[in-house]
Fold:
Amino acid sequence: MSANSSKVPAIEGCFSTIGFNSQLQCLYIDNNFNVSALASDSGISNWVYQDVSALVTDPVLADSYLCALNYCKQLHHFYITSGMQIADIYYDLPTEAWHYQNLHQLQETAPAAKGPLFAVTYNTQQHNLYISPQGAICDIWYDSSTEIWQSQNLNELQSQAPKFAHSLKVIFCNNQLHHLYIDQNQQISDIWHDWTSNTWHYENLSQCNNTAPLAGDELAAISINNCLHTIYVDANGDLGYILRDFAANTWQYQNLSTAVTNPPKLRTGLSVCYYMTQLHVTYIDYNSDIIDIFNDTSGQWYQQNVSSFQSTAPQARGELCPSPYGNECHYIYIDMNNEISDIYYDGSGWNYQNIGNLPSMQR
Structure:
């Protein structure tokens, strides 16, 4: 790739990160409505740009809700088209070949996709969860053991589950697939499947712990050591934390906004990651700084302003993706210049880089 004065394409929307084949990749929908990727190559300061949409023949343009999945030695880039269908551009590592498919053409009876969109691996299966225009949680999924595509409406499988309102997250934990969302009653609902018994269940997490306040509109979740960690913004603007410990069969609730001293209020970008035995809850505050509330193995909570560690880093606009990579933790975000910025900790100190504007990224 030769360098010149032209930068990589600008970001139109929908940004995410993923690790694949020893690379950290930043994916986004560009201003041409194509899928673009920035991938670290032989070191975190050496990034390569790729126009993913140009690698296949006649893909439908991306409209919204890009997400990625590492499945069966393949890197999948799923997105919703303007026709409310799910498209997939994927790379097959064993054959080093790129392919394109339309999931709604593989399952023509599946309801239209409105978003959000979430992809996850569930043992031998690949699941693509989305919200229909009617507010139902739908799933187009593939099983590599049978090589069969299927679709299902989760609200029909569990009719007592309230309709979706905000923030779908799908987490594999305890050999179960949990579909967490904020429902129309401002409570956290979970439609989940148990692999061993092949049965579906519904659970209201807000009612499992009666001290949990009503939810606002942002939700994050992660599975660590057979525990399901759910963090959300409550109706008071505080950060609620619901911990499900499957081994102990217990529920716990904690207000993270009171676990540390006067943390800034969240504006957007609630996200979570696990780095060096620490649970990190990150978000963008009203000063457009990146805030990180984290705990250690003793259960003690701490807070830090990540933006303050690098004074040259531009303020954050939105779409924050905390991304552990080797022994590093990267706080990758869309900055106020509509570019991809990265404040990262390398195990000994803090660093900053503008990924889309590095010399190796110019083309």
Q: What stands out?
A: The two ends are 7 Å apart (CA to CA). The first strand starts at residue 11 and ends at 20.
